[in-house]
Design a protein that fits this description.
Elements (H helix, E strand, L loop, with lengths): L2 H13 L2 H8 L3 H15 L4 E4 L2 E4 L1 H26 L6 E7 L1 H18 L3 E7 L13 E4 L8 E15 L1 H7 L14 E3 L29 E3 L2 H9 L5 E4 H6 L4 E2 L8 E9 L6 H16 L4
Parallel strand pairs: 3-4, 3-5, 7-8
Antiparallel strand pairs: 1-2, 5-11, 6-9, 6-10, 6-11
Length: about 300
């Protein structure tokens, strides 16, 4: 397959029309059409369904598009690695992690990173769903579980330990629990069932201190986000189990029942194998490891 024809095909597939693809590539519509037709003839399959409002990929066209898109991604990575090997770290760096970790811990440390590396253009994508790194939806992911894909490089960053917290205002009006059984008389905030929790057993507080045959406590509120639970606790709504790093980031959290310990969650720094030698990846990884070590979060 001719590379120029593949380049044109990729532009047409992304644009959805010959006209817009021609504008992007600075080619005439007739030149674009000839390249696409030539590619279809060489493969002996139609790549687009043509209709009045534009072009739609056929099944074969979609297969080719995904392959070509992957090729473009790898070429882009290679180009960036060649540039970075001769220069100081610079260029775009897209990082994704959970809403809770990104909002409470990571964003407040990005300022220090950018002061060290002002030529790196950081973009944070905070979401409780995983972006596909192999499809270049992000360059780096900070995940609450180890990845299973063989083409991803992983490095453990730290262990999050879940402990029990409440706000001073809540404790002022409702009293301090002295033992786990006292939780029967308190408002508990737990993880809801509407999304996959970042770790198993996060609602352990409902049964803390109870025997196996005893009924679980009824929560006062269920939230499908650790960050939402964090904010609810800060507001004085009730008691919840939260990662210990949140206590360090908030002056309005008080640890209660320190003898109670919930699940531990290992956090991983993850990126595609193709970016193993990227200077942007390396300096960002090393920055995070240094900060985590300095703050005693390992």
């Amino acid at each position: 397959m001719d590379w120029d024809k593949l380049r044109v095909f990729h532009a047409v597939a992304e644009a959805g029309s010959l006209t817009r693809a021609g504008e992007a590539l600075n080619l005439s519509q007739s030149a674009i059409s000839r390249q696409v037709s030539g590619l279809e003839e060489s493969l002996d399959v139609p790549l687009f369904h043509r209709h009045a409002r534009g072009l739609i990929l056929t099944e074969q066209g979609d297969l080719l598009f995904r392959t070509v898109q992957e090729m473009f991604g790898k070429l882009s990575m290679t180009e960036q690695r060649i540039i970075e090997s001769k220069q100081s770290p610079k260029g775009p760096l897209k990082v994704t992690t959970t809403v809770a970790f990104g909002s409470v811990w990571l964003t407040s440390r990005i300022k220090d990173f950018l002061e060290l590396y002002p030529d790196i253009d950081v973009s944070l994508v905070l979401a409780d769903t995983e972006l596909d790194l192999s499809m270049r939806e992000a360059d780096i992911a900070i995940r609450m579980m180890a990845p299973t894909q063989s083409d991803l490089v992983q490095r453990r960053l730290m262990t999050m330990r879940y402990q029990v917290f409440a706000a001073p205002d809540y404790l002022k009006h409702n009293g301090m629990p002295k033992n786990p059984s006292d939780l029967d008389n308190h408002r508990l905030i737990v993880y809801g069932e509407d999304a996959r929790p970042p770790a198993a057993g996060l609602n352990w507080l409902l049964g803390a201190g109870k025997k196996k045959d005893q009924a679980l406590r009824k929560p006062a509120l269920k939230v499908n986000s650790i960050y939402g639970i964090f904010r609810a606790v800060e507001s004085g709504l009730g008691i919840a189990a939260l990662p210990d790093y949140m206590h360090r980031e908030s002056e309005s959290l008080v640890e209660i029942l320190p003898e109670l310990r919930g699940p531990s969650v290992d956090t991983y720094f993850v990126y595609p194998e193709e970016l193993r030698n990227s200077q942007r990846i390396i300096v960002f990884r090393d920055f995070l490891i240094r900060r985590i070590t300095e703050e005693g979060l390992k």
